[in-house]
Amino acid sequence: MILRDAIDVSLDNLRQARLRTFLTTLGVAIGVGSIVGMLAVAIGLQDNLYSQLLRTGFFRRITVWAQGAGGRGEQQQPPRQIDENAILAIRQIPGVKLITREARIPVRLQAGEKTVNTQMTGVILDDADEAVFTEIKQGRFITSSEAREIILSSQTAKTLGFIDPAAAVGQMIRVRVRVDRPGAGFGFPVPEIPVPEPFELKVVGVVERERALFGDMNARLVYAPQAVIEEQVQFFQTRVPMIMAMVTNWAPLQVRLNDARDVDRVEKEIKGLGFRTISVSSIISNMRRAFIVVDMLLALIGSMALVVASLGIINTMVMAVLERTREIGVMKAVGAEDGDIRRIFLTESALIGVAGGLAGLLLAWLLGRAMNFGANIYIERQGFRAETLFHIPLWLVAAAMAFALGVSVASGLYPAGRAARIDPARALRHD
Amino acid sequence: MDQLLQTVNLQRHYHMGNSVVRALDGVSLEMAEGEFVALLGTSGSGKSTLLNLVGGMDRPTEGALLFRGRNLAQFTSGEMAAHRRSSVGMVFQSFNLIPRKTALENVMLPMIFAEKPPGERRRRAQELLERVGLAGRAAHRPAELSGGEQQRVAIARALANQPELLLADELTGNLDSRTAAEILALLRGLHRETGKSMLMVTHDERIAAVAQRRLYLSDGKIVSEAAAT
Looking at chain A, which residue has its C-alpha nearest residue B110? Predict the structure, then answer.
């Protein structure tokens, strides 16, 4: 029996029991729909997260830390500090564009009578593509890496008395570096550390920083051009070189690359030099690992519906075999082989699987569209940008169809085997 | 004439609870190519059991059943299907047409399993329906046909793959006497024209009269034989 005939005969059989075929197919559709729906939401949310991370511009950046002695009880590598030699070595790695030392100094800001203690960190023009600056609410980013400018966070702006953060833009802020004397208060005699003169910076922007997982600190962080920070660091380096060498050699470096695609390679090379590194790509690969577990769990829950659908197929097909016993007898009497009969019934369950799979994909897609629509109304009302929360990638379509086909054919195996074993003489006995 | 069929001490036993029913109890017969033979017997004589064995629908318990010298008792299930498909064609008392298929589709069915190309199937089925006098009824379903017409479709179907032997099991059992006579005339005509071998089972002497030779079965054994008068 050729395949085309098997399909013709099967379609004809399915048409004979329209309602039953429809209900069984609907079962498969719901099963496939629930798997695809669950995974599509998970994938959509994950894609969303990744793309937000991608937008941060962190992708072309690797943060490098000094490696302490015996970090995890391993003695393979000597402690490695970030000294001038280290910076030279990293600079020679192909793909590296720029290296800055992450400088974060404690400062006291003053506007009129109000003051606030916080930390100030250096930024360069390249950082303009970071999310926190692309979504800047008031004002703008710094104009150059040397400009005498400052970007406040909305929280520091408020503490400084600017109830409306927009009012801070254009104001002059007085900045004084705070020096905590080490050991002070414990009764140790400590050298007097000189303090640089306070200076003024002009507010050019105010960023909205969400309260981070790590507490309040990031919400109060303010930004000044890298050169402004380095000027202050320089002051201490000339006055108290010993202390500064200790401090700076343990401060992390920001290594910026020309191309995001080099991140993995360059990160590996820097690690090879004996430093600890972190990049968004390594964060993402960790996240991916966690999400795979979540995706698998969701798929498992969705599969339950398909298991039930598979029982439906078995039931339908067993019924069909019982009903068509005589017809199977006739087909065998005119020369059908056991394999022909098996093929007819397997084709029937496969057709149910394919139809159910297609309908399930459609169902999931419609549901997803509706969910996207509904969720985005809420999201936009909250003042955020509309997002795609539901995404069915091509591989999911292919996997769902293959799964539906596999499950339905597997469900058809028992009924088809039973049909193939029917004894024609007994089936046609006319009493 | 060449030998077509030979059985040697053919036995078919059924288990009914703890007892054994010997439906066939040592049948030995021969049939030449081109012969028209009738098997006569009362119900339970074993004639239908014998027909099923010859038709490859069932397997003997013991003995040999040679078709063109090959022993059906040793056939694999695939060989049995091939035998049913192309060596023999069966006609039943209750027609056994597929109700939702048209006359044409019913006649085409054996050719689907023989993997004949669709065009050829249609052409041959049309020819056969013409031959049995149903050219105008090709698109009708069994329920729209009379008993006689249904049996004609069944005969056309039995001939679809050009079998060497036509087997008929009480083919007029469900028909009135006038229709029965027409069907028998059709069978006799086919035999005369094509010389096709035919083996017919019946309990009715008058029907068996169309055959060239009659074999009488009783309790699973051939008890007597008679040539056509």
Answer: A334
The answer to whether B11 faces chain A, any CB pair under 8 Å, is no
CB nearest to A1's CB, from B55, B115, B160? B115
Selecting from A327, A334, A428 the residue whose C-beta is nearest the C-beta of B157 gives A334
Residues of chain B with pLDDT under 50: none
Q: What is the ipTM of this complex?
A: 0.94
User: Residue ranges of the domains in chain A?
Assistant: 3-54+286-427, 103-251
pLDDT at B106: 97
Residues B91, B169 contacting (CB under 8 angstroms): yes
CATH fold, domain B3-227, is Rossmann fold (3.40.50)
**Chain A: residue nearest B99 by CA?**
A327
User: What is the spatial distance between Cα B59 and Cα B22, in angstroms, rounded to a whole number?
Assistant: 14
Q: Could you report the per-residue pLDDT of B9-31, keeping only the tens digit for each?
A: 999 999 988 899 999 999 999 99
Residue A333 contacts B, CB cutoff 8 Å: yes
B209-226 pLDDT, tens digit per residue, is 999 999 999 999 999 988
Instruction: Give Cα A390 distance to the centre of its chain.
Output: 14
